[in-house]
Amino acid sequence: HFSCPSKTFSDSWEIIEGLRGGLSNVQEPENQAGYMLKKRKWPMKGWHKRFFYLDKGILKYAKCAADVEKGKLHGCIDVGLSVMAIKKKAKCIDLDAEENIYHLKIKSQELFDEWVSKLRHHRLYRQNEIAMFPHEKTLFHPHYPLTSSPTIPDSQSIRKRASLAKQSSLHSPVSFTSQAKVTAWLQSSDDMDRCTKELSVCEAQLLELNHLLRSMEVLHRTYSAPAINALQVPSCISAGSIRLHASNPNLSSVDLTNEKTYHETLDSPIDVSKLQEDFCRIVSHKSFHSTMKSALCMLTTEKERLKQMLEHDSCPAPSAQLMGLKNALASAVIQNAELQERLCKIHAESHIPEPSVHINLNSCDGSRPLVHQASNESRASITESLSEFFDAQEVLLSASSSENEPSEDDSYISDISDNVSMENFSNEVENERLNTGCVENGGSQEQRRCCLPSPSPNTSNISLWNILKNNIGKDLSKVAMPVQLNEPLNTLQRLCEELEYSELLDKAAHTQDPFERMVYIATFAVSGYASSYYRAGGKPFNPVLGETYECDRPDKGFCFVAEQVSHHPPISACHAESKNFIFWQDVRWRNKFWGKSMEIVPVGKTHVVLPGFGDHYEWNKVTSCIHNILSGQRWIEHYGEISIKNSNSEKCQCKVTFIKAKYWSSSMNEVEGAVTDHKGKVVHKLFGKWHEGMYYGSPPSATCIWRMNPMPPDYEQYYGFTKFALELNELDPLTKALLPPTDSRLRLDQRLLEEGNVESAEVQKQRIEQLQRERRRVLEDNHMTHQPRFFQKSRDDTWVSNNTYWELRKDPGFSNFDCPVLW
Asked: Of which family is this protein a member (predicted)?
């Protein structure tokens, strides 16, 4: 049940309280209707006026009252299942419904107070309804008009179908031995109550569709109506939507009554087109697909939770012996890593007469051979990925097939596989970059670690709601979080992760055609988001003011340096160089928590210069949103448009769109782009998924430009890190001697978390944050401002490198350098 009290913040945000303590009978509220301003959905900006109708905790909206009457709704919000916050001064109302965040505004203070009062009442009523009748929730149909209509089932028919649904659910067999466990699971699961409600809605909608189909079949036989499969499909829905009854075997198996009963209920010949219109209206409505998708997601989550509970109950409770074995295993893993490191050093110092013989001492090293041919397994993976993607992109194909059918034949997939092999894995031409580096000191390791010292800690005992409930609509960068919620990397290292696929910039530097160069630049911009797919569960450490990070990678041909140049607002600047490119950016983030989701809005530009051609590319970043912050499986979504321009030439430009997931579609993480000339004519098309790969051209001759590297073994247990991320915080004695004391690798709390010492990491984190507050107080008392060491402000207020870091590192070295004490 709901028991979060109202809280008022300094910025006047207030969380609307939910149902308190025990269950109570809440009087049914009166309906509320009227116009409010609603913030436009991405990618549009600004506000527009919409008509809202609030009925028993369900808030529907459309363009006008007539559209609501006709059932032409733009959206439907379950207020009882949403986190609601208000800002009285600005007369704003925010509803976080998990899938979407709705921002509403009212101009009149009187109307604002009236809407808030009604929403409070309806929210309590809806929550009380959910709590009182978790398995018999009121069904609502957002696609039905407000007034009665012959094509709409009345309340009696809905109750009849709900009763049938309940009766059919009683036939589900449950084994006697697991009955108690399942009962306990149901009682402890608030999500199951919501899932039951979603399933009830789904079943009622499917029963309604089945009723319409049966009616049309009876009419066909009785009045010689046209065959159902010959009916004209209205343009309002796609061909894929009308196939719902054919792809769902349960739909035709639901037996409401016999054929005779259907025939008797028809008082007169009904226009088939009217029945067809009703059928299509229900199927094509957003809420129908949204409810189906939501129910499937919750069923999957609850199935996994029940499975874990059954497995847990079938095993004995963790004993001291088991914990001892676990600790012994962790110790053995650390000892094994130390032994491997010693063997690597012995191997490096030994003299081998045959240099062609390669001894791979680190069996888990994920490096590829110079020439890699796609295996059968990789081809199968490519087939699966491409079929999934091309099915979702009907606009790219001349014909669409069922979601379960491959979109192209084996020869096409073979061509794509060959393209992947040639384009993405062949590095004969690029091997010369392995011999380049910014610093000639031998500090970089050839044998890099493939595993962290300790897996990620358990965070199930942390109540995020208690931490975040007072910060609705606020910037979370100023909110102190428990160290368990962090990952053992910080924001400066995250910036370096964007260079994981720097070979795309190397390819661009060796490409003569300017339009193809732009293709590689655009793909590089997309590739920087790939590692976030598995990282929605943790957050990076916030760098303290003056903190630095370097990454010297001769194997990749670049050297990177970053510094935290500002604390309020937090600004991170970085700079990387190789013989082929120069990369820099300064980024500041605005993080806002909306109750169930957190939006991350980056501000700043990314720059890449290709000295060989005199090109200077710059582009923006897109918005990121982490969903299911408080419950369930967190997942991250990126949406927005990246606009890439060459400031030294107007010959071509590129726009890449990260497509926001739609409620009624299973397609996610899709990216589309186009490279155009100075007249706006499209020269190259790009498409793909930011967590899988990118292609350019048009099917079936599309070429793979980039694919995400395979994840290391057991990555789920190690923060979801990629192989490149595993190496970012690695510290060996040779490198340690060359680093400044401000480098992130030397930060104690981050290092302790990586080693699995959570309690000590929390102590050090608080100490380091206190040190930063004291340094800031000293600067303020002396009317001084912090001056970054390795970056300076340019004329356009962006931070750029002063090109002193690597020179100082080389001579005289940072051991003799006056650095602030950060930790």
From this structure: Belongs to the OSBP family.
